[in-house]
Amino acid sequence: MSFPIFLKRTNNEKNVLNKTYVDDLTTQVDVTLKNETSITDPVFLISGDLNNITQFNYITCDFFKRNYFIIDIKQVRHNLYEITAHVDVLTTYAGELLQTKCIFERQTNIFDPWLNDTKMKVESYNQMQIKAFDFKFHPEQNLILSVIGGTN
Amino acid sequence: MAFNFDTTYILNFDDGTSLELANFEVNTAGKLTRSTDTLTFLDTSSITNYPLLIQHQFKALMQNELAWKKGIKNSNYALAIFITASQDTYYYYNINNISIVPKTAELGDAYDSISDKISVTPNILRNFAFANYNQNPTTYQAQINLNETIQFAIDITHNQFALPYFAQTNTRDVVASQAINELLGYWQSKLQGDNFMQYTPAQPNYQHIVDDINNAITASREYPAGGDPSTPDNPNAGQYSHGSDPAGIGDFDNTSDNIEVDNTTRVSAGISGKLLESYIITPGELINLNEFLWSTDFADVIGKYILGDPMACITGIMSLPFTVPEVNRGSIYNISILNQDTGAKGTRLTSLIAYIECGQLELRPYWGNFMDFNTDIQIYVPYCGTYHLDINEVMGAVLDLSYKVDIMTGACVATLVVGRGTYVAPLYTFSGTMGIEYPLSSADRSRLISATMGALSNPPATALQAVATGVSANAPNIQHNGAYNGNSGALSPQQPYLIIRRQVQSLPESYSEYIGYPSNITGYIRDVRGFAKISDIHLNIPCLRSESEELLNILHDGFYLL
Fold first, then answer.
1. Which of A53, B96, B228, B490, CA to CA, is 20 to 30 A from B441?
2. For residue B535, what is the nearest residue in chain A, using CA coordinates?
């Protein structure tokens, strides 16, 4: 049984949820599955003349409703390629994840600046600042005399 | 085109939608309230000049929300940003950059032409960093308290429906407005396939400007991961919070009673009656008094035979380091001793406790984040010593220092009143002795020398000593408290001051983009951009167990949303 997949190229890291793709390179091809293949680590067999197959690093497979990283590409024989893939769970389930509530431990924009940041490094030197109150004493401002015996 | 209207104004559009413009201001409680002042919207011509798509969005969006904060405190100009969103379920926007340009720049100037004038103001950035996110698709607001023409550079991403707009306001009115996308381009998102979103610029991309500003910002290591420095007690006072279901049954009553400092001087010199009397006396009058004491009549008759020593009539001569307040002063009298008029004149003291106000210092957070609470604070109190202050008690507070001085003995107590948030209270008192006491006999002199030498051998901190200690990063924390008497205190600095020693954060460029800041905030993943690391999540996704485990690992380790 054969079914179509989309060969793609992404320059994003694997832990990017919403990956972007090089549009011009996206190619639809028909594949068959190698025997006893896994849905999370499938091995696709592609027949055909694919000169640019080494440019692809990503697969979208509607049949499995999953997206895959291309782990390895082997040329079995002329015009037959074997692509080993691993499911990209982040983008595969991006739709559900985006609707999910969670507690963020660290975040770029939503954060509590008053939480202690153990990853923050501090310099070995300290910054000194002196802030003076306005008032200043002046020695010998007033002479106070105390005597015994009261007023006359 | 100009509109002038009172309080509110309704703009009716051709498609049946309407837009209400209203004037808002910030009340003393920091809440946005509707103002009764006239609102003038001078420049709306730009509204009709946008491409149709933008224009339609503007109209649709503006009917949802329009609000701005007025500049408060010291501002004559305020700039408000409002970003609105449609009813779409995704509301993604980040304000990444903000720049201030000098007064010479005119609103609407080509941005490139003024890019060389861009300056970065860390305080502004801090405010923005704190406020740059709203969970709900309502209105984004920020304000700047500068007497300058201000131009924003904003990178708004990932929301095809959000339209940022900015308005320049003077004290009361919006004087100009312009869509942000005119300056920095407009990013449009589109759904591709089932799960993938791709963002492509639908307008000319001005990313290079964003990059320039980013570089300018990150070049300044002053840019902290900070919040609103004026509200350290309530860092999450926004739409995000720590939740409303705390694991406790306390009443969360954190109200405080204000403790007033008694600044009265009601301890009168009444003991004087006929026993003791204190005067403010000039050096010249002191000479006159001396002549009287050793005059033949007084010295031979009263001093010699009754007291044994004429100087025994004088219980003390002291020089105080401040001008005795008027409230303590009585009239000028001839000084009497044992009911004998000495002929010397002095200002009689009516009360013996002088109150001296030293002023206030506001200890505002420097970083606007947790680093401020790793700061070491000491206070030098003349005639009392140098003391550590608990940073948790004084950060973000107004410190008010005052003295009460027993004029007759020189004994003093300094009180530091701390005002912060809901309380104003005297949290610190320091005792000491003030004034230079003059010896009246050889025995007095020996006593004073002994006391002064004792104080100097265990000296109070001088300014130099304090600074020298402070600049050594790993130096042990030295208490500068010393044994003071009035004489040694007079040899020390005469002005009270704070010694602040703070840690310096080493903040690499794009720190927040790579690893974010501590959050502990609940929210939807869809609402964030950049780096995110999740501590807790309940996945309800129809996936394989192995996939679920891998997914959890990734979420816990951290991931990125472009």
1. B490
2. A105
